# Entry
Amino acid sequence: MPLPSLPAPTGHGEPDLTLSRGPVPHRLQAPVWSSHFVEIGADGAVLVRVPDVVGFLVRDGCKVILDEDCDAETSVIETFLFSTVAGAVLHRRGIFPLHASCVMVGDVAVALAGVSGRGKSTLAGIMSMHGHDVVSDDICPVAFQNGRAMIAPGPCRIRLWPDSATLLGLSHEALDVGRPNHPKRVLSARGTDGAPKPLGAVVRVAIDRRIETPILHRLSGPSAITPMEELVYRARLGRRLDRRVGLFQDLVRLAALVPIYQLIRPEGSFDPALLVDLVRSTANSAH
Amino acid sequence: MADAATIGWIISYPKSGNTWLRLMLLSLMQGGAAVDINGIGNEAGLANHVEMDELLVVESSELFPNEQVAAQPDLNMAIAAETGPGLKLRKVHDRYWRTPEGVAVFPASASRGAVYLVRDPRDVAISLSHHRGITVDSAIAAMADPTATLSESIDRQRRQLAQPLGDWSSHVRSWMEQLDIPLLLLRYEDLLADPTQGLRSVAGHLGIAHDAGAAQAAVDATRFEGLRAQEQAHGFGERKPGSTAPFFREGSAGGWRRDLTSEQAARILMDHGETMRQLGYACGANGT
Amino acid sequence: MRTMPTDTLTTDTLVSWHPEQVTAAVDGQVIVMGLIQGQYVGLDDIGSALWTLLEQPQTVGHVCDQLAQQYRGDPGVIASDVLAFLEELRAIDLIQALDADSSAS
# Structure
């Protein structure tokens, strides 16, 4: 089925992940874990359901089945496919999902990381408006190859609340619809080709109501990678899929290969250009 | 499966002393240790979007409000389950409510107890006007609004999940009249007059083991002057941008007599008099 | 699963890394994740040095002696600090206390 968001694939050979329509149960028979939206079966299958909207079954980490009874628009399918379902696939395959929006700064990728609401997407949008290509929004699959951390590009579509759109000087109409009637909309940013990009820096975004200008500083030691939830997409799901040790080891490896920064931004209004300069500066750091 | 935590809900209408009580309890649970007002983080915090994202594994910002509401009972169960055994304190500003399907948002099975901290609505109105940077008249109107809700995400992401408040009287009543969770009703004014006694009654209700020394130490560690001094020195993360006063502003009772016009005081009495009298406010002549 | 009685640690107690933990280092500082409770702890320089000593079973007293050689300080204070620290680590199953009469299993 067509997914307009994904970059054109590079490389050859059979796809190692298929997406198709098929029967998807409402609930699993005997889940080993469940939440309101996600269930994990004893065989490692992951069911993702948004009640009355969309359902997916992830089998063996390589087959994603979209509920054939689902009549949601493509934009709705993509909303949940590229969030929870992608997270389930990556954890199931043992791939480290960095919870970050990622942009190119020169030849390297800079990942803007943190839990929901920190402004990762908004900051990626700001970088995009200043000429930086978008590698991915919200989830960055990281592979460790030849002593480097590499990011696999994903959809270069950035999801924004109206106030963020305004900050970027974009009108509501200029953006694509995500979920119909939902305030969040989608910026189709300029992306990269599908080849993996070397990760040059991880920038953890934090908010402090008490400051007026943003602060950037380098993190070192264990606090650079804790708490895990700031860097790992849906860590709880990963732990339930036997990735507790693997994610820990991947975080340690990430810290050994890539400089990790903290960018603390004010909550109120501030000059976005300041942030752009600070993010750009991280790409030049030696490690 | 390991024992889940049980939750001690610390409930109040906004600006009724919730932060102070939580700081006291957190100090007590560490034997009366000093507290850093900016160090509590999400300890004993409000339900927020990060928790829904991480615990229920969903992109909550892409859900509609009714979808988030339907998931809230599960979120509260997950908060209890994800913590180790023992007591977990949670701050609540919501009135007591159920989802449209009739499921209690605050599940009894995950709850050890609830403490409702109530404050004279006339003092609440003044505190609310400072906190939100609005006129006292606007604050009084907000307190009488049956549709009042905190933290609705309309044009921007809010940190917390939407919290239905309703008007002040209904808010108190909803918690007093629910039968699912054992409730201790505590007046802010009584806590102010004898904080050690108040703290010990709360600790007793929630099953927090302690001795008199620890309770006294917790009270000393959270004296108003100390909290205000910390805010002056380091700021305070819970203070709203746009607030016209420090978060730890006055810490007393009865300031309304000085700060409300008689017309404003009468309006509050008209809006909430029945509940006020039931709680021991406005019992004297002329609503004193 | 703990089979030892939970007596207070003393300087004679034999302690070592718990088998159910993963140790790593970030910028030379130790980070340990316990697999039983899922908690992880980042250690400062002294904590990291102490942790390194515990890879093989040692008595608490021996650990204190080695730390006293590396870091100046009152031996009594070092002992009480170390004992308190080890109790915290044991509470989250990062270390184990072994029977003083037997070797590590």
